[in-house]
Amino acid sequence: MQECIDQKVYQAEVDNLPAAFEDGSINGGHRPGGSSLSIRTANPGNHVEIRAAYIGTTIIIRQSAGQLSFSIKVAEDVARAFSAEQDLQLCVGGCPPSQRLSRSDRSRRGAINIDTAKQLCKEGLPVEDAYFHSCVFDVLISGDPNFTMAAQAALEDARAFLPDLEKLHLFPSDAGVPLSSGTLLAPLMSGLFVLWLCIQ
Description:
Elements lengths: L36 E7 L3 E6 L4 E8 L2 E7 L2 H4 L26 H5 L3 H11 L5 H13 L4 H15 L31 E2 L6
Antiparallel strand pairs: 1-2, 2-3, 3-4, 4-5
Helix pairs in contact: 3-4, 4-5
């Protein structure tokens, strides 16, 4: 909607989750319809929501456990409207070196075994669905029990985004992937949220 909304860029980093776009504005500009793009914060420094009402899109960016995560609600036709060549990306430069998890550092961070990771995740995610398995994966790989908060926040975002709560819990069998006791899943949640985990 070039005739209505000024192009806006939002940039966030760990410990820098601004409540405004890069130009300092909190909406789409002074043109008619500019208010259909807005940014607000529910918890300064930890939770920002960007709403683009003109395309039915909401993005929630959170900082939790020293990491950034985001949830997105977007119409399928909007999500598929852009080719790979177009410059519309959520994560342009990859993970900064300070946010990468080195395999060799894992044992020094305090290794957590799979049973402990499951127990920690079960406390806030009692249903063993895709959110639970993503939580187990993140806690196990990072060695940081605080990653449980990010998975719980993703589930809360999904509750807010989904009109049909029957579809809230995604199970491995829903995706055609059999679950065995030795299987860890890091599922892609149908556009609801993507959890970036960088490993060197």
